[in-house]
Amino acid sequence: MLDSAIGAPTYVLPELARAFGTDQFAWIGSSAMFAGALWSPLLGKSADIYGKRKVLVIALLVAALGGLVCLTAPNLGVFVLGRLLQGAVVAALFLSVAIVRDICAPKFSMVVTGIVTAGSAAFGIVTPFVVAPAIEAFGWQSVFVISTSFAVVAALLVRLLVPDGGSRTPGKVDVTGALVLALGVAGVLGYISLGQVFGWLGGVSLLVLAAGVAALLFWSLVLSRRPEPIINVRGISLVFGVMLLVVVMGTGAYQSKLQLISMLLEVSPEQGLGYGLASPLALGLMFGIPSIGIVLGGIGAGVLATRIGPARCLAVGVLTGTAGTALMLFGGGPSNLAVAVPASFLLSMTAGNLMTSAFNLASILAPKARQATVSSMVMFMVAIGAVTMNFVGSAILGQTAIVVDGETVNSVTGIYAYIVTVGAVFVLAAIPAAFLVRKVRGQAVAATETTSLGHL
C-alpha cells in the first residue's frame, strides 16, 4: 500500500506536471511523504492511547479518500490536497512495525520488521511492467486507481485479521501541538520550494519562512513543555537522537534519487543533453530491479540485527549508499543504463537497510507501551529527510536549467550537482553512524524486549 501511494506516482511525474501545468516536481512527488511527516506524530501518539489496529484502519481509509481526490482533481491545488490525505498511509508502515512488536518474540520480531518494512517493495518489482501499460492505456489516473483499491482492501483485511492486542498508554493527544508543529515544518520546507518561484529574498518566500520559524519556536518554547507533548524532545536519549540524524540524512538522500531517476527516464541520450536513460526497458530496470535491492537490504538487515545489532547494520547501509552514489557519479550513470541500474540497486539496498535497522533500534530503546510513538518518530524523520532532499534537488535543477529550442530543460551540470549533493549527504551521515556504532558496542541489543540504552 505504501509503495503504491508514495512510490508509484514517481513513475508519472512528468505526465502530472504537464496535466497540471507546473514545473514543481517536488510538490507533486513529495506532497504525500510530506503529509506523512505531519501525520506521523499525531497517529503514533493516538495509536498508543486508543489502539494500533483502530488507528491503522482509520489511516488507510483516509489514504483511500486521498486517492479518490487525486483521481478526480481538476487542478494542482486539489491534487496536492489529495496527496496530503494520501500521506496518512505512511502510518501503515510504522504502525505495522509496532503491531509486530506486540505479537512477535523480540529476536524474531527483528526479522519480521525487515519483511514488513522492505518486503512491500516486492510490489515494485512487478509494478513497472503492470503500471506502464496501464498508464499508456488509461493515463496517469490509473496509478491512483491502484493505490485507492489497495487502501480499501488493506483496511478491510486489517480490521478482519489483525488482533487488537498490545498495551495501551493512558493519556491524551496534543492536537494543538501537532498542528503547530505541522505548520512550522510546512513553512520552512515551503520556503525552499517557493524560493525558486518568487525568489529567495522575495516577500512571499520570506513571509512563509517567518511563519514557519515562528510556529517552530512557539512549539519548542511553549507547546513542547506541556506534560504530554506530541513529541517529547527532552526524552530523546543521545543514542536515539544520533540514530534519527542518520535516518533523516540517509533515507532523504535515497528518496531524492527516485525523483532524479524519474526525470532521467524521460530524456533520451539521443537528445544530446549529456544525460538521459529513456529506452523500452529502462522503466522496468530502474524501478523493478532496485525493488529487489530494497527487499534484500531490509530482510537482510533484520536477520543480521539478531547477530551484530541494528546499529552496525545502519552503518553498513550508509556505506552502501555512498558506494552507489559514487558509482552513479564516476561511472556516468545519468547517461549509461548499464551503470545506473547497479548504482540504483545499491542505493535501494541502503533504503531497505536503513528503514529496518532504524525501526529495530528504536524498538529496543523504547518501552513496549510507547512502541507506536517511537516508531512514528522514526517515520517522521524519514519523511522530513525525503521531502527536504527532494526540495533541495528540485532547487538545484531549477537554478541550473537551460533553454534548448525554446524549451526549459535540466542541464547536465544540474544533474551531476544533484548527484554530488546526494553523495555529500551520505558521507556526512557516516559520521553519526560511526559514533552510533561506538556507543552501542558490546550491548546485547537483541537480548531483551525492552532493553534501554537511554543512559548513553
TrEMBL record:
It comes from the Bacteria. Residues 1-441 form the Major facilitator superfamily (MFS) profile domain. Keywords: Membrane, Transmembrane, Transmembrane helix, Transport. It is a multi-pass membrane protein. GO terms for molecular function: transmembrane transporter activity. PANTHER family: MAJOR FACILITATOR SUPERFAMILY, VACUOLAR BASIC AMINO ACID TRANSPORTER 4. This is MFS transporter.
